Amino acid sequence: MKFHVWFGALLLMTLAGAAACRKNAESAKADPLLSAYDTEADWNDAQHVVPLSFQQAQGKRIFYQQCVWCHADSTPAGPSNRSNLTPVPPLLNDRATLNAESDEYMQNIVALGGTAMGKSAMMPPYGRMLSAEEIRSVVAFTRAIAQPPYQPPARAESQYSAK
């Protein structure tokens, strides 16, 4: 009889422990920051933190090395040079400007520079300095921090679709 009571108690403790572990696992999955490789504070709301994947985190690293001086209002080292440039470059999180452009266009402007893309000559070409993967990472970081959040364009309709 003692064995049955002892075994029943052990079984109840095991089931309770498993249920608690399952609840912890479910709550961990619900918070995207717990599974993020890195994070970036929202430039418009410091209370909001943007989770970043590995590729986006690599883009963040490159951004803070190369792009921050012209595409942010302030930098970790102090004020940026953005206000001294004509035309003033867009902020990297400016959805109205940058999210209207395709990923391919964004990659080309980084690689080829502003002049080659019909934009400001102040934007230097980074194609020989950064690899294609690094440039894709910068674009991925741009998409991650865009405010309001980036929404990829809907698939274009066929010219032959029924209306």
Architecture overview:
With 163 residues, this protein is mainly alpha-helical. The chain folds into 2 domains: 1-30; 38-145, Orthogonal Bundle (Cytochrome Bc1 Complex, Chain D, domain 2), CATH 1.10.760.10. It has 5 helices and 4 strands; from the N terminus they run αββαββααα. The protein has helices at 2-30, 54-71, 95-98, 103-112, 132-145; strands at residues 38-41, 49-52, 74-75, 78-79. The chain has a two-stranded antiparallel ribbon with strand order 1-2. A hairpin with a 7-residue loop joins strand 1 and strand 2 (49-52). Helix 2 (54-71) packs across helix 5 and helix 4 packs across helix 5. The longest helix is centred in the N-terminal third of the chain and has 29 residues, at 2-30. The chain starts with a helix and ends in an 18-residue tail after the last helix. Mean pLDDT is 80; it is low at 157-163.
Question: Which structural category fits the helices and strands?
Answer: mainly alpha
**Largest beta sheet: what is the strand line-up?**
1-2
Overall pLDDT score:
80
Largest sheet: 2 strands, antiparallel
Number of domains: 2
* CATH homologous superfamily assignment of the largest domain: Cytochrome c-like domain
Shape estimate = elongated
Short description, anyone?
The protein is mainly alpha-helical and 163 residues long. The protein is built from 5 helices and 4 strands; from the N terminus they run H-E-E-H-E-E-H-H-H. It folds into 2 domains: 1-30; 38-145, Cytochrome c-like domain (Cytochrome Bc1 Complex, Chain D, domain 2, Orthogonal Bundle), CATH 1.10.760.
